[in-house]
Amino acid sequence: MGLTKSSVGIGAVDSGLIIKKQSPNDKIIALAGNPNVGKSTVFNALTGLNQHTGNWPGKTVANAQGYCKSEKHSFVLVDIPGTYSLMAHSAEEEVARNFICFGAPDAVAVVCDATCLERNMNLVLQTLEISSNVIVCINLMDEAKRRKISIDLKKLEERLGVPVIGVTARKKKSLKSLLDTLDIACDEKRENKPFKVTYSPEIEQAIAIVEPEAKRLSKGKINSRWLSLKLLDGDSSLLCEICGCLGDDFLKNPALFAALNKAKATLEDSGINPQKLKDKTVSAVVAAAEKICDGAVRYEKKQYSGRDRRLDKLLTGKFTAYPFMLLLLGAIFWLTITGANYPSELLSRLFSLIGDKLDAFFVSINAPNWLHGALIDGVYRVLTSVIAVMLPPMAIFFPLFTLLEDSGFLPRIAYNLDRPFKRCNACGKQALTICMGFGCNAAGIVGCRIIDSPRERLLAVLTNNFIPCNGRFPMLISIIAMFFAVGTAGGLSSFISVAVLTVAIILSIGMTFLVTKLLSNTLLKGVPSSFTLELPPYRRPQIGRVIVRSIFDRTLFVLGRAASVAAPAGLIIWLLANITVSGSSLLSLCANALDPLGRLMGLDGVILFAFILGFPANEIVVPIIMMSYLSAGTIDSAYSLAEMQALFVSNGWNAVTAICFIIFTLMHWPCSTTLLTIKKETGSLKWTALSCAIPTAIGILLCMSVNFIASVFF
């Protein structure tokens, strides 16, 4: 949903090889696992941090680090990206592989899902080929029990040759067994005899030819058997990492070169080309995983995932998927809009009473007019406007959206959007970055790293700003509530408000598709790539934790960021309104200069100037507009939504203005944080400028078109 100061742990780095220790004795533990196995939940429970658990694959693209302590040791836990395989084919898989292979962790804890253990076992077996100090942590034991799945942990431990423990990460007490096992693993380098995948005789013969030289040259830094297999595989990205670890001269060694040529010739004589080698390697791992789980995992097939399949027929069905998506979004918007009106009015009344007390206090101490105006009319009014307008809708919307995410509905939405992106010659993973963008566009931009193709990644970066972030949602909801809900019959007004907001979201997503299609056919031509999206099981969200996390980690964080910008912005607006040049205030001069363009767009100069001043944070645009109008002396008190509507209407607003405002809110330049993120991710001023120009130009043209149509027909 978004980036916060604690959402990526104490350090998140792309390479995953920079570790921050609190003391030299800290033990480094790599936390690996498939997507959706609860790996980040384990990380959060042990470290006390709040690494966001997105419940879809590819969310994490860097390594989050956190600290925890057991009875004997202190640990640096490194939450590496969720990956299905260490045979890397994507950015997150490369990060995960590189840390396990070259990050020198003291131990690797592989988190598995008890409800689909055989599939997770593929990653366990690949990890065992690299490191012998592995702990298999089987999570979601409670869900396995509910689905009548029984797992013989002791039998698995005997077969794998490494410790196997079962936990329920949501219950923190169950993780004590993991800490105890980590203590044992780090106390002494036990002589584990991990299960070894046996490949076909031809591949085993080739490995035997290369391994002596690989073992001699690697000097124990990398498992020689795994290294030999990867040298035969010839993965260029992995070879670069190997050279970085062992030195550039490693592959140039004559003895190793000769051994590799001999081994490859042996494989070719057996009819095994490089592609067939990869296929046989994967097949052997899959067969071994099946063998490991055979008899150790039992479940009643008739009762397994029946509810999930019925729900998926509804949520991902050919004719039901999109209508249900719209109904779901509409329900969230209805609850947000109808629920936000009353608390917003209560807050405005409270702040009005406090404002009256402050006014009286300043009068009683004979404070100068300029000080009273700057602090009360400037800072206080804008700050309280932000809180009264933004807090209620955010406090409702974020928990509802997080419930959708935690329960497994959002990955279904991403799945449904995969086909439209394919038609736009883009990657279906862009749907995941859209979901991230609803929380924070900067987070969505960073999330674009999960897209392998540079072309498709750039498409996702350039179009992510069309998705309204958590800073723009309260702004949209406030304007819609003012002009489509206030003063009309309750049920009908709520329905109209929800319809307008839903149409706005559809417009933003539709524009994302359109611009993606145009760019993929012009500046960024290419063929779309494929990707695998796992639909996680539906899970009962922890409502209490969701509410707490949404309020403290999202609502208050976003509100605090907005307030920190709103206070100085209020002071600046008051100064602009009270500093005059040739009889006109600076505020009116700036607004008047922008007014011709604003009128063409169905807005006015004050609104455009507010968007410009809101560049640091979109959250303050509406309060700036209000402060600008208030500086003209229109209203002299705090305001509810109805009073805000009266203020705007008295300054020339109507339904067309509101619609144009909604359009321009959806489509204008990104905020400063997002632009800086785009510059960092693309490394190009050209693409950063284009990401700013594209939505702004489209927003201006659409607003002008709506205003023209309204002037002709209405």
Written overview of the protein:
The chain has 29 helices and 11 strands. By secondary structure, the protein is α/β, with parallel strands linked by helices. It folds into 3 domains: 12-187, P-loop containing nucleotide triphosphate hydrolases (Rossmann fold); 201-299; 321-525 and 542-713, no CATH class. Residues 1-17, 52-61 and 632-637 have low confidence and may be disordered. Helix 19 packs antiparallel against helix 21 (490-521). A 7-stranded mixed beta sheet has the order 1-3-4-2-5-6-8, sandwiched between helices. The protein has a two-stranded antiparallel ribbon with strand order 7-9. The chain is elongated, with a radius of gyration of 29 Å. It has helices at 39-47, 91-102, 117-130, 141-146, 153-160, 176-187, 201-218, 224-233, 236-246, 254-269, 274-293, 306-315, 321-364, 369-407, 409-416, 418-423, 430-437, 441-447, 454-463, 473-484, 490-521, 543-578, 586-600, 605-613, 621-630, 641-650, 655-666, 672-682, 685-713; strands at 12-13, 27-33, 63-69, 74-79, 107-113, 134-139, 149-151, 164-166, 297-299, 580-581, 584-585.
Top keywords for this entry?
Rossmann fold; 714 residues; alpha/beta; two-stranded antiparallel sheet; seven-stranded mixed beta sheet; elongated; 29 helices
Helices, strands, pairings?
Blueprint: E1 12-13, E2 27-33, H1 39-47, E3 63-69, E4 74-79, H2 91-102, E5 107-113, H3 117-130, E6 134-139, H4 141-146, E7 149-151, H5 153-160, E8 164-166, H6 176-187, H7 201-218, H8 224-233, H9 236-246, H10 254-269, H11 274-293, E9 297-299, H12 306-315, H13 321-364, H14 369-407, H15 409-416, H16 418-423, H17 430-437, H18 441-447, H19 454-463, H20 473-484, H21 490-521, H22 543-578, E10 580-581, E11 584-585, H23 586-600, H24 605-613, H25 621-630, H26 641-650, H27 655-666, H28 672-682, H29 685-713
Parallel strand pairs: 2-4, 2-5, 5-6, 6-8
Antiparallel strand pairs: 1-3, 3-4, 7-9, 10-11
Helix pairs in contact: 3-11, 7-8, 7-10, 13-14, 13-21, 14-20, 14-22, 14-25, 15-17, 17-18, 18-28, 19-21, 19-29, 20-21, 20-26, 20-27, 22-25, 23-24, 24-25, 27-29, 28-29
